[in-house]
Amino acid sequence: MNKVMGIINLAGEKDSLAELTKERCLAAVPFAARYRLIDFSLTNMVRSHINEIAIFARNNYRSLLTHVGSGADWELNKRHGGLYVLPPYWKEKDTLGDVDYFLHNWDYIERSQADHILISGSSFIANTDYHKLIEQHIEQDADITLLSTYAPSAAHSEIQRLAIQVHDKFVSNIAVNISDAPIFTGVYIIKKSCLNHLVHYRSSDERSNHLIEMICDNLKTLKVCTFAHREYGSFITSLEEYFRENIRLLDPQHYLKLFQQGKNVSTKISNYRPTKYESTANVKQSIISTGCRIAGNVERSMLSRAVTVKEGSTIKNSIILDHCTIESGAYIENAIIDKYTVLTEKDLIIGKIDKPHIIGKLNQVSMVTES
Fold first, then answer.
1. Which InterPro entries is this protein grouped with (predicted)?
2. Cα Rg, the chain, nearest whole Å
3. More confidently predicted of 117 and 13
4. b vs e for 306-339, b when ≥16 Cβ sit within 10 Å of the residue's Cβ?
5. pLDDT grade for 364, boundaries at 50, 70 and 90
6. Domain spans in the chain, listed from the N-terminal domain onward
């Protein structure tokens, strides 16, 4: 039977969420009030019976290590297989592509009995499994099978994404600006023998040190197929996308598409008491996590764990992360407030719906701020 191991490749991801990725990598960014972005990649792999998973850490990964720990919350704390966080491969200059990470950790990959490697990042958010992707890949005896999507969020984004062009059932081109073509999600499965050849036997004229671009350069000699993801999916590669995709989940229709019944997303367990709503609390169309204490006004917003909203304060259309305190008199609208921030009675934080204002971690805000 063919065996598949998983690699969550953070080496090729950019920490592009402004203050949110100043001290943490993209994979460790909180999402949907109680999760981190990496939770979806881990859950999807485990649900696909992939029980040997490595994470290529790149930088700012302390928060990531604290979150994933031994992998116990995903049932990956195993004697054989399990979860491994592989540290960065440092050079004097930060010019590494992810190929160097595969080379540097090849001894780990080689020891695996897996015949195929399923590679994912953390920026594509979906709640799914990869059984059919793996099955098609093996049945077609493909060297590589790319997961594609027609995600609406990608179509309306100003960010250029790789699209996939297919000819005679095989991928003929992977590039930006291909009209009416499916978008590459960053998830793909590759034969271990093919991966070995690509990273170890590069020709002198290879244009890049990134694996996906090496695949592009070898489309004529490789059997590269595609598999369509037809369920809910979104991309988180900019602060605007992060804000929009979180706020979209306040619509029950979108929320139930991502968090489907019977498809729980695993995350680190945190034992907080239930949220307490004071008699003065006024909460509308919001997601409130555990451990909060609400006495003020919260409208169409998302609050992570242990947030305190005092009487006389107002939060509208905003994302408030763990352990923030919103004092009486503070007003927040169209904003993202990172962990442990204290907003005082003098604080007026107003952003735009398409350009939210962001307050970084551990801020004691004491001025009027508008954007």
1. ADP-Glc_PPase, GlgDAde_trans, GlmU/GlgC-like_hexapep, NTP_transferase_dom, Nucleotide-diphossugar_trans, Trimer_LpxA-like_sf
2. 22
3. 117
4. bbbbbebbbbbbbbbbbbbbbbebbbbbbbbbbb
5. low
6. 4-258, 276-370
Q: Which CATH architecture has domain 276-370?
A: 3 Solenoid (2.160)
Residue with tokens 């984004």: 157
Nearest CA to 170 out of 208, 140, 193 is that of: 140
**Whether pLDDT at 61 is above 60:** yes
What DSSP designation does 355 have? B
Q: Is 89 helix (H, G, I), strand (E, B) or coil?
A: coil
Pairing of the two strands 282-284 and 297-299: parallel
Among 87-91, 166-170, 190-194, 242-246, the minimum mean pLDDT is found in 87-91
Residue 157 has pLDDT above 80, yes or no: no
d(CA 251, CA 9): 31
User: The tokens 């989940």 sit on which residue?
Assistant: 249
Answer whether 4-258 and 276-370 agree in fold.
no
Residue 168: pLDDT band by 50, 70, 90 thresholds?
A: confident
Note if the pTM is more than 0.85: yes
Helices (H), the chain: 37-47, 62-68, 98-104, 106-111, 131-139, 152-155, 192-200, 211-217, 239-248, 252-258
Q: Give Cβ neighbours of residue 90 (< 8 Å, ≥ 6 apart).
A: none
Task: Look at residue 305 in the predicted model and tell me its pLDDT.
Answer: 97
CB of 20 within 8 A of CB of 336? yes
Cβ–Cβ under 8 Å, residues 161 and 174:
no
pLDDT at 142: 97
C-alpha to C-alpha distance for 153 and 354, rounded to whole angstroms: 14
**Whose CA is closest to 345, among 300, 310, 306?**
310
